[in-house]
Known about the structure:
The protein is mainly alpha-helical. The chain has one domain (2-382): P-loop containing nucleotide triphosphate hydrolases (Rossmann fold, 3-Layer(aba) Sandwich), CATH 3.40.50. Helices cover 56% and strands 5% of the residues. It has helices spanning 2-10, 14-19, 25-43, 50-76, 99-107, 117-121, 136-148, 153-157, 171-174, 183-186, 190-198, 202-216, 235-241, 254-269, 278-302, 313-318, 320-330, 337-349, 369-375, 377-382, and strands spanning 89-91, 112-113, 223-227, 246-251, 308-312. Helix 3 (25-43) packs antiparallel against helix 11 and helix 12 packs across helix 13 (235-241). The radius of gyration is 20 Å and the shape is globular. The model is unreliable at 1-7 (pLDDT under 50).
Amino acid sequence: MAATAATEISSLDADALLAQYPLPEYLRENVRPGLDMLLLSAAEMPDLNANGRARLLFGIHDDLGRLKQIADDRARYPEIAEVEIREPLFIVGLPRCGTSVLHALLNEDPNVRAPLQWEIAYPSPPPERASERTDPRIARYDAYLWESFGGDPKELMKGHPLGAMIPQECGSFMTTSFQSSNVCMLQNLPRFYEWFKGIDATFRYEVHKMWLQHLGWKNPRQHWVLKIQEHMYKMRELRTVYPDAIFIQPHRDPAQVIASISQLMYVIRSPAYDEPGKDKIGREFLNLWADGIEAMMDYRAAHPDLPIHDMRFKDLISDPVGTIRTAYAQFNRELSDEGAQALLQWLAENPADKHGKRSYSLEEFGLDEATVRARFARYTDTYRDFV
Length: 387
């Protein structure tokens, strides 16, 4: 079955795939290099099982289809291209540092908007403010979640929130540029990952902005709140497209981070492999996130004026409202009493371990604290007051 998967993937042609989703020339020509590299990288990984092959191919068609929807609506409604994106707030840094909680909490601020999971899955027609909680695509997305994962979504929800009305990470729409490392979460694609690290990813942020303009056209707020850890690799390109962007970087002990993310990636990866290999996953994500945080530290060292607020994971958990107010103050923003109450309401409705308690350790992924601390020595030394 694995050999069949590799053969079928290797027979795919980027031009033939693109012909199925006619795009404007600029989009088509900028998508092609990443699509070529993704197909080449996937064909080199013969251990994908039938489900893994199907998931990969579905993702390619889904990304091309959603990008075409964005492009078609943009041509149909030229005013979408005039939507202004002002001072978007990006949550960056390592995974498993409370970034999903922070994303959800900030989305409760009446002045702030995050992309929602259903909007990213079904972007056309552009969502509207009046139906943001009643759109029939909401129920469609929730039904799709339970039918499509291929594994146990209940286990996944212990570590990562799922649901139509939950904020979605940028990776889920940056994949439509074919310049996102998000595909490397679902399957091991070393050639694509190495290519991704070396590219100029300005195009992916142009596509990113197209999505925000699309989603915000009929459902605007004052500001966007956005997050995905892979922004760390491409800060120069992000700020080229969003020169007034501001940032929050939560911090946590990297030994806890790597144990947690390895367990989550094992759950996500397992349906795609007959033998996903815990030791392989541990090593892969140890190095992947060390690469990311190194890139972020290099950028910050070269740009000491970067508008960024460093946040302790422990503070966010112990005093979320106060911690968010402190972050806002750095950017001359205020959290209203209404916003604070909405945050507290969200916390009451979404307690820790709402979907069950997770258990994980470095050792089950072939790692130990000494190995992780050695790999993240520069990070822990730089941010010792925050981890």
